[in-house]
Design a protein that fits this description.
The chain is α+β, with helices and mostly antiparallel strands. The protein has one domain. It has 2 helices and 4 strands; from the N terminus they run H-H-E-E-E-E.
Length: about 140
């Protein structure tokens, strides 16, 4: 007798293979997702760094007040005519922002722009005046 059909073992094997492919796909998706958030946040920080450099070129100093939020820094990035050096980035790529001004007594002082990205690792990015970038994974949010 010629029977046609699928055995339970064959069906289980197909389900396992589909599960493995789904895990691989999701892992790659999360990698791309994380890189997108970190890359977008880094682009925003580099734009802010350029605006700070324009401020330094016109005024001869970096912004001197620390800023715990983006608006605090943007309020200092105004040219002599009262126009902003940069359009505000959306800030949707990070969950926290801070600007640490250089020590006014040090003519070669360093400032820091720091954000915590909204990726799965809560990656902290710090950009310095010389374009040096520090990456630190704070760990997944709970």
């Amino acid at each position: 007798m010629n029977q046609r059909g699928v055995t339970t073992l064959e069906l289980l094997l197909v389900v396992v293979i589909i599960g493995i492919l789904a895990m691989i796909t999701m892992t790659e998706y999360f990698k791309v997702h994380n890189r997108a958030y970190v890359g977008a946040a880094l682009t925003d920080l580099q734009g802010l760094r350029q605006a700070i450099s324009m401020h330094d070129a016109e005024w001869g100093v970096f912004p001197t007040d620390d800023a715990g939020d983006l608006n605090g820094l943007l309020s200092q990035l105004i040219d002599p005519d009262g126009n902003p050096y940069i359009s505000p980035p959306s800030g949707s790529n990070w969950s926290s922002f801070s600007y640490v001004a250089p020590d006014p007594s040090d003519p070669y002082g360093d400032y820091e722009l720091t954000v915590v990205c909204r990726d799965h690792f809560n990656t902290q990015l710090t950009v310095h005046w010389n374009s040096e970038v520090e990456y630190l994974r704070l760990g997944p949010s709970n």
